[in-house]
Design goal:
Largest sheet: 5 strands, parallel
Shape: elongated
Helix content: 40-55%
Strand content: 15-25%
Structural class: alpha/beta
Number of helices: 8
Radius of gyration: 18 Å
Strand order of the largest sheet: 2-1-3-4-5
Order of helices and strands: EHEHEHEHEHEEEEHEHHEE
Distance between the termini: 50 Å
Length: about 230
C-alpha cells in the first residue's frame, strides 16, 4: 500500500485528505507543522502533500530540506496553496515540488494527480537498463544518458531535477517538433490540461538556466521545442 505524508496545519484539511485517500486505498501519515512533517518523513513515504503556509518551519523550507537529501531527491511533492499565492507556487516549483493544487480543491482531482504522479514514478523505475552508449541522446555539446539519468554539457555534469530531466528528454526525442504545454503536462506530469500551464513554464525556465538558454526555443502561443543546431 502506497503511503502519503500530509503536512498541513489545518485539521479539517488533514482529515478531509486522510478520509479521501484512505477510501482510495492509500496509507496516510499526518503532520501539523513543518518540523513534525520532516520528522515523519522516512523511506516508506511514497509522496508528500505539503501546505506552504506552515507553522514552525514553512512549506518552502520543508521542500528545500527534503530535496537536499539524496534519498528523497525523486520523492514526489504536491504543494497545497491558496489561490492568491502565485509567487509562492512558482518558488515552490523552483525548489523542487512536482506539482501544486490550489485551495479549495476537489478531493477527486487531488487523488487523480497523486495517482498520475505515482504511475509516472513507477514507469520511470521500470525503464530498460541497456548500455550507456545505446541510451545516449547527443545534441551539440549536450549529452543525455537515459540509463544513468545524467546530463552533461561539454563533459560537465548538470544537476537536473527529475521533471527537468524528463522535459529535456522529451524535447530531445522530438527534435524538430513543437511540444505544446498541454502535451508536456500530459506526458511529464501524467494528467490532462486543466487550464493552468504555469508548472510547465517554471520547469522550462529552470531547465534553461541549467543547460543554457539557447537549447530550448519558445514558440509563442503554442509551446516549446529543442533549438536547431547552428
Amino acid at each position: 500500500m502506497r503511503k502519503i505524508l500530509v503536512i498541513d496545519d489545518e485539521e479539517s484539511i488533514r482529515e478531509l485528505i486522510r478520509f479521501n485517500l484512505e477510501m482510495a486505498g492509500f496509507s496516510v501519515e499526518l503532520a501539523a507543522d513543518g518540523r513534525e512533517g520532516l520528522d515523519r518523513l522516512d523511506d516508506t513515504t511514497d509522496l508528500v502533500i505539503l501546505d506552504l503556509m506552515l507553522p514552525v518551519i514553512d512549506g518552502l523550507t520543508v521542500c528545500r530540506e527534503i530535496r537536499s537529501h539524496s534519498e528523497y531527491r525523486d520523492l514526489p511533492i504536491i504543494m497545497l496553496t491558496a489561490r492568491g499565492e502565485e509567487i509562492d507556487r512558482v518558488l515552490g516549483l523552483e525548489m523542487g515540488a512536482d506539482d501544486y493544487i490550489t485551495k479549495p480543491f476537489s478531493p477527486r482531482e487531488l487523488i487523480a494527480r497523486i495517482k498520475a504522479i505515482l504511475r509516472r514514478v513507477a514507469n520511470d523505475k521500470n525503464l530498460p537498463e541497456g548500455d550507456e552508449e545505446n541510451n545516449e541522446i547527443v545534441w551539440g555539446d549536450l549529452v543525455l544518458n537515459i540509463a544513468s539519468h545524467e546530463v552533461r554539457r561539454a563533459g560537465n555534469l548538470i544537476d537536473l531535477a527529475p521533471k527537468e530531466f524528463e522535459l529535456l528528454k522529451l524535447l530531445l526525442l522530438n527534435k524538430g517538433k513543437v511540444m505544446t504545454r498541454e502535451l508536456l503536462l500530459e506526458k511529464i506530469w501524467g494528467y490532462e490540461y486543466d487550464g493552468d500551464t504555469r508548472t510547465v513554464d517554471v520547469h522550462i525556465r529552470r531547465l534553461r538556466q541549467k543547460i543554457g538558454e539557447e537549447y530550448v526555443t519558445t514558440v509563442r502561443g503554442v509551446g516549446y521545442k529543442i533549438a536547431e543546431l547552428e
